[in-house]
Amino acid sequence: MMHLTNLKQDLEIRFPDTSHGDQWIINPFTCDLNTVKMNLKEKEQLIDLMSDESLRSIFKTTDLSKFWIMMEKEYPLLFKTSLLKLLPFASTYLCETAFSTLTAIKTKYRSRLNVEPDLRVSVSDNISPRINILTASVQAQGSH
């Protein structure tokens, strides 16, 4: 029992629960503004977002990550914060997907195959390149 208590304490130190002030990311239309941890400009953006009924209906029918990506131009501060909070889950998902794909491709009968090309294609089918960001960064480097 002592081992489990130590494990729990260790996990709480390594992964502190910071979700109390971030409930607005999960549902910006039902969060309590008194518990939200953000600066004044972010709160103003959140209040504006909460009062937009058209965005409320979009939120109900859209995936959480896609919703926040759609908010990039109109609510850039909220977008940036939500992206930073949601990004680790997407990264973990991709790692798990890659591992599952690798175990499916590389069985004991196919253990000598070079799986890297197949794995790359299998994992990257849902990732679309953001060419505009890439070209902007290359152009910025070229102008220096």
Automatic annotation (TrEMBL):
Q: Which residues form the HAT C-terminal dimerisation domain?
A: 49-114
Record GO terms (molecular function): protein dimerization activity
Lineage, top-rank taxon, reads: Eukaryota
Q: Name one Pfam family in it.
A: Dimer_Tnp_hAT
Mind telling me which PANTHER family this protein's record contains?
EPM2A-INTERACTING PROTEIN 1, LOW QUALITY PROTEIN: ZINC FINGER BED DOMAIN-CONTAINING PROTEIN 5-LIKE
What protein name is recorded for this chain? HAT C-terminal dimerisation domain-containing protein
